[in-house]
């Protein structure tokens, strides 16, 4: 068996501990550290109470928050921009009205006259072109011609028919009128290709009126009046 060996130690403070519980104690805290939790609780309670009162009374709409201020600034800027746009539009409209009022009626009248002159010149050119086309057409003297005597002179149609035969027209006949007759002497023709012959006949007989008439039976009809 092993023998216990007696070991001696130098006595110290731990050999005689004090009576009762022994532990580590904190020092006294500052007064503001003690009051801070109570202050926070009271402040939160006040804020919640004010918020609840604002909701119940409707005053929450009057409370200006930072983001609501930004929204109002944006709305004001948009209103200012729209106002500027409307003002610009009104100025442009007024400028257009002023320009309309500043128009010179004399210049407009001159422009209208110029347009009328242009239109009349175009019409005259068209008429001249049609006349030139008719003059360029060859005269067909073999076309049937009927001379109608609507005058009180006997044998007048035969005399005029003889003139046309002397001018080279091969198929000419004299006839008496049937039905209504025009007031003035006229040469009627059927078909645009016979216009040149009708104009030549009118020139030969001294008649100024030459008119198309597709309802006539003979290709060219000469009506002698007065």
Automatic annotation (TrEMBL):
GO molecular function, one term: translation initiation factor activity
Keyword terms: Initiation factor, Membrane, Protein biosynthesis, Transmembrane, Transmembrane helix
Domain LytR/CpsA/Psr regulator C-terminal residues, every copy: 142-224
Tagged with keyword DNA damage: no
Residue stretches of biased makeup (Basic and acidic residues): 83-94, 104-128
Region (Disordered): 1-20, 75-143
Pfam family, one: LytR_C
UniProt xrefs under Gene3D superfamilies: 3.30.70.2390
Name recorded for this polypeptide: Transcription initiation factor IIF
Transmembrane segments: 30-55
Key word Protein biosynthesis present: yes
Organism, as annotated: Gardnerella vaginalis
């Amino acid at each position: 068996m092993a023998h216990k060996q007696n070991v001696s130690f130098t006595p110290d403070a731990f050999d005689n501990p004090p009576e009762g519980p022994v532990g580590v104690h904190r020092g006294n805290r500052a007064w503001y550290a003690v009051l801070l939790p109570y202050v926070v609780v009271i402040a939160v309670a006040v804020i919640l109470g004010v918020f609840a009162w604002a909701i119940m009374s409707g005053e929450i709409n009057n409370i200006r928050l930072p983001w609501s201020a930004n929204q109002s600034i944006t709305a004001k800027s948009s209103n200012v921009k729209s106002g500027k746009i409307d003002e610009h539009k009104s100025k442009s409209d007024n400028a257009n009205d002023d320009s309309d009022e500043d128009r010179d009626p004399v210049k407009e009248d001159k422009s209208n006259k110029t347009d009328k002159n242009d239109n009349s010149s175009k019409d005259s050119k068209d008429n001249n072109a049609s006349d030139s086309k008719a003059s360029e057409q060859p005269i067909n003297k073999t076309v049937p011609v009927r001379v109608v005597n609507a005058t009180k002179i006997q044998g007048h149609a035969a005399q005029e028919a003889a003139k046309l035969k002397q001018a080279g027209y091969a198929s000419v006949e004299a006839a008496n009128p049937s039905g209504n007759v025009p007031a003035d002497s006229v040469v009627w023709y059927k078909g645009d290709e016979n216009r040149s012959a009708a104009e030549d006949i009118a020139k030969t007989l001294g008649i100024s009126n030459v008119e198309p008439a597709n309802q006539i039976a003979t290709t060219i009809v000469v009506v002698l009046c007065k």
